[in-house]
Amino acid sequence: MDSSSSKGKRKRGRKSNKAAAADQRPPSPDAAPAPAPAAAGRRGRKPRRVVAPADSDSSRPSSPPRGEETKPVANGGDAVVGELGPGAWEEEAVRVVPSMDAVVKVFCVHTEPNFSLPWQRKRQYSSSSSGFIIGGRRVLTNAHSVEHFTQVKLKKRGSDTKYLATVLAIGTECDIGFPIIGIEWQKMENPDLRKAMGMKPDQKGVRVRRVEPTAPESGYLRPSDIILSFDGIDIANDGTVPFRHGERIGFSYLVSQKYTGEKAVVKVLRDSKVHEFRMKLATHKRLIAAHVKGRPPSYYIVAGFVFAAVSVPYLRSEYGKDYEYDAPVKLLVKHLHAMAESPDEQLVVVSQVLVADINIGYEEIVNTQVLAVNGQPVKNLKNLVTMVENCKDEFLKFDLEYDQIVVLKTKTAKAATKDILTTHCIPSAMSDDLKT
């Protein structure tokens, strides 16, 4: 092969660096910037056009924001760096909304009582919440934020200092004190039922099944009354009232919109006559209290039998947060449907039995209601303590539900109590509120 012909042919491959540099011409200063390469897309799609922004006064240097400095960049130009200058941090910190300064953070250490072992307390824990300054060096917060408090501290907004605080008052009724109507009612959707109750075709309402004896409504309402309206709003046969457009809601919603102590006009059908009552609404004393107002739980011990009053915190302590499913059916029925006959009535149970020689055979009695002591009905825990302490009979007899009875020799039972308390490190046979 002729060597001269091979010289005229260019070898395949990449250009040398020198040749590549020679092909690149320096851009003219007047030339428009080249459009950016189109991004790869699907077949058939047109490449995007990148439009250059309109000319702006780019020659004018941008001034740094207030409180910021201009620092030189390494390549010789100047650039705005987001760094606050001397004193600027303090200036920015004080520029806050004035109303937010009234909000404080509340730090609380709680030590809750142990309702299953009422002579003890649970392990302490901490919580944080918000409070609002209301003047006079006082702060308003939620009741549960400082319930069963051991220590309370406050911190102002933007401050790193915490201040010890003193709890002046706790109003649990302000947190959960919504008024209710102390009745149980029945729907009136059946036409035969409505006719039998003397309702006209154009009348609608619900039938009163039961009225709580301790409720203020007991002075106005009676069983088999038909509630036709509440504050001028008609109640349907299914117990609903108009809500938003195209919606209905239970008439208890109307009650919840009232405050405790306010009055409501209730229209009632009784013996085929319409009556109108102006009733004062209030919170009601339930047989099983929904809340214990920050005080230690009450208890009484004799011969190893631990007596306690049932409350919702007690049920939660015994059966967990799902107590509505796990608690005994009889306790749940009383919790949902039982009504107190008097304001001081309580549901008293044998919580547990601290095993000792004197209570052999009774060890498995747990959370069983006490109905009577020596034939006398038990009204509340205080009443039970009084009857046991003043008992002069030879035997103590407790009548329990399910037709169970517990019989103990009175003198032996009281004498054995002291040794049982010592064994279980219990400081007293009864809570402080029962000693007076």
Could you please describe the fold and organization of this structure?
One of its GO terms (biological process) is proteolysis. Residues 26-36 have a biased composition (Pro residues). Residues 50-61 have a biased composition (Low complexity). This protein starts with a helix and ends in a 13-residue tail after the last helix. The protein is 18% helix and 27% strand. The chain folds into three domains: 98-176, Thrombin, subunit H; 183-280, Roll (Pdz3 Domain); 299-434, N-terminal domain of MutM-like DNA repair proteins (Alpha-Beta Barrel), CATH 3.20.190. Strand 14 (263-270) and strand 15 form a beta hairpin. Residues 1-9, 17-24, 28-33, 35-44, 50-61 and 63-82 have low confidence and may be disordered. The protein is α+β, with helices and mostly antiparallel strands. The strands form five sheets. Strands 16, 17, 18, 19, 20, 21 and 22 form a seven-stranded antiparallel beta sheet that branches. Strands 8, 9, 10, 11, 14 and 15 form a six-stranded antiparallel beta sheet that branches. The chain is flat. The protein has eleven helices and 22 strands. The longest helix has 14 residues, at 410-423.
Largest sheet: 7 strands, antiparallel
Bin the helical content: 10-25%
CATH fold label of the largest domain: N-terminal domain of MutM-like DNA repair proteins
At the first level of CATH, the class of the largest domain is Alpha Beta
Low-confidence stretches: 1-9, 17-24, 28-33, 35-44, 50-61, 63-82
Give the DSSP E fraction (strand runs of 2 or more residues).
Answer: 25-35%
Gyration radius (Cα, Å) is 40 Å
Question: What's the tally of helices?
Answer: 11
How confident is the prediction overall: mean pLDDT?
82
Overall tally of structural domains:
3
Instruction: Report the span from N to C terminus.
Output: 128 Å
User: How many β-strands, per DSSP?
Assistant: 22
- Structural class of the secondary structure composition? alpha+beta
Name the CATH architecture of the largest domain. Answer: Alpha-Beta Barrel
Query: Which overall shape is indicated by the principal axes computed on the Cα atoms?
Result: flat
